[in-house]
Amino acid sequence: MQLRNLRIDDDLSLVGSEVPLRVYGEGTRGPRVGVMAGVHGCEYVAMAALQKFLDSVDESRIKGELRVITMANAASFWTRTSFVVPHDGKNLNRSFPGNPEGSFTERLAHVIFQELIRPVDFFIDMHSGDLVEDLEPFVLFEESDVTDRARALAQSYGLGHVVRVVKSDSPISGTASGAAAEIGIAAITAEVGRCGLLEHDAVDQHERGLRRALVHTGVLEVRGEEEVPTSPPLEHSSWAWLRSPISGWWSPRVSVGHYVEAGEQIGEVREIEGLGRHVVSAPSSGYLLFMTSSPAVDVDGLLLGLAC
Question: What's the pTM?
């Protein structure tokens, strides 16, 4: 294994301005695969699962090149900052492929994209529910010229839901997996874990999924201990993110993982001062895959994600 530090800017000495990149194997002997965790520094399950895999992997099983970043956003980890990089308040997973002349987060995204993502054939971005984010395990990929390869990679992870994101309908942009798809790399975002909790069952589930996905790519030699999923995932072709038009107290009526019918009331937001109230109803039928777990919601605050 080779280890080198990626520098964000030689003139900076901020926390997180060096990102360790590990390289296993040799790209001339098989596919190149990139794996990343810690894009959001409070998503502990993903980081723990990736480290658990690396602690136990037999390098003789690597049949290509495996490029790994275990903690992409160290500044957020050390300051316990949800979702964004504390240096500039920007979300790293809305900043890819980055900008070498931009803010700290944009430069961080640029270095990661150039050194981890651009050289590979497959890319896996490991995430979890952040501190105020309840979550049902799922994998998503963005529709692209390599949709079939990305879909197969998503299915191989063995989670209960797979979401195909059409770029023109996507509620967000600038994700690491989306930027990878733009340049023809089969890429997925895998989500396991909830509310910033380091739950061991979730760590194990994420780590097993990663092993299955790496075997699928061919970079990890097949051995008997890789568990085969017992049933195919539910596949979803659209993705709705619901936001609150008012600030107030968010009270959901259903839990993540539940199926809701179009028009069904999911919850409500009440103003803290005043009588204002916003009823949240499902715009279409689907499964709630993530939800804000905190009652505190600001104007335009994200409430939930509905896979349809």
Answer: 0.95
